[in-house]
Amino acid sequence: MRSLLLACGLIATTQISHTQIFLPSQTAGQTEVPDIGSGVGLLDQQKEKFIGEKVYRQVHRQMPTIQDAWLEDQFLQVFSGILSQTQLGQPIGLIVIKDPQINAFAVPGGLFALNTGLITSAKNLDEIAGVMAHEIAHVTQRHYSRSQEAFKGQGLLALAGILVGAAIASQADGDVGSAVMMGTQAALIDKQLSYSRNQEREADRIGMQFMYAAGYNPQSMADYFETMHRATSRVSFLPDFWLTHPLTTERMSEARLRANQLPRVKPKIYDLDFEILKWYTTVTSNQANEIQLLALANQKNTAAQLALSKFYLEQGDYTQAQANLDLVKNRLKSHVLVPLIQTDIYLGQNKLAQAHDAISSIQKTMPENRALSYKFAEVLIRQGQVAQAQSLVQRFIHKNQRDIQGWALLQRAANLDKELPLQAVNVLCYRAEVEYWSGYEENAIKSLLHAQRLAKGNMAMSAKIDARLKQMQDDRRRKI
């Protein structure tokens, strides 16, 4: 078995409420679904949040995640749009995993992840939205939490153990990972991670309502079912997603019938934005080769030409990257990826003034765009403009304390701020956050212990470090 086949379909969301330690203070319509009542043995929100954050860290440590602000935010926008049709709170986050397997998974606490294989196999964004909506529907109906009564007190953090075994399986021989998950995990796999046929059908039905209300074509959920059914009938194995979400002929027929009963959404004949997203993903996940991209680019395929520019950029061939980017600039004047890739080309050549010019004006017109702000911050750090870079990043860290890329930028900026009295302390504190949310909890605690020693004599900073250190230590020891 590969990667995350046992973790599919386990999502719940809570409001993000994380203690802000090192930063200054800042200050829809919904779809009707059946009321499931209070239930028995429901996980309380604090436990859900703890589990979600724990697995978030575990996944980042064990799985090959893609750290790309633009790519993450594209899918988070889809996810959040569907989530807005529910009564669930703000999610912990969304992770893109570099894996060609078709899979998506979610865990209690509001963590959603999808493999790049799911993205590259989809024909349109609506199909991806259908998978997300299905997962969210499992959550709104508390399918996971409601099953806990049957599980009778076994540690929920065994879920993290399963993820570790699955991660081993994805990086080595599959039998090794399977062996890790045998024995005491068998009951967990059987009772905790399996959904009944009724729950699957309910998630299909309610998920379709969510995606339709969010503006996506409900026919795409039925289309994806049929595409997967045809694909799996020709091979000897099932994709991971269907191992935990068994696909039956009955489910496919019901999905098509329900989609036909909803008002028709006119499908797009050609969606350039999705094609750009898809081919960009193939490059960042190493699923595309130069010959494949060149064949499409020579046909004047705009998405392939832009992806080829990104491909050459990652190869360090800035001349070819620039040549391919120049081919699409006039056709993609308003697309954010153009200035992002252009800035990286200049940064790779150490042309800092040109990089600044390429990103600064568009970032100022779209200050809410995380990818543009982080790229501009990277330029400013390279130019030594530390305070301005920190100001850009801190706005996003305030919104999401789990933003690894944001903490890494703050660490880089603090490392250059030689005039700051507590420079070493700040570097250590930012480094601790990067380590912690990347899953290296012990290293994060060591970094804060070092910062604690250096901060002696500064009562305010010492108090902040002490509080964050205690929180990390408590979370590391905590069992459920």
Task: Provide an overview of this structure.
This protein has helices spanning 45-62, 69-83, 116-121, 125-140, 143-146, 148-151, 158-171, 174-180, 185-192, 197-213, 219-232, 240-244, 249-261, 272-284, 290-297, 302-315, 318-328, 337-348, 352-365, 370-382, 386-399, 404-416, 423-437, 441-454, 459-477; strands at 93-97, 104-107, 111-115. By secondary structure, it is mostly helical. The protein folds into two domains: 45-261, no CATH class; 288-477, Tetratricopeptide repeat domain (Serine Threonine Protein Phosphatase 5, Tetratricopeptide repeat). Strands 1-3-2 form a three-stranded mixed beta sheet, sandwiched between helices. Helix 1 packs parallel to helix 7 (158-171), helix 7 packs antiparallel against helix 8 (174-180) and helix 17 (318-328) packs antiparallel against helix 18 (337-348). The longest helix has 19 residues, at 459-477. The two termini are 27 Å apart.
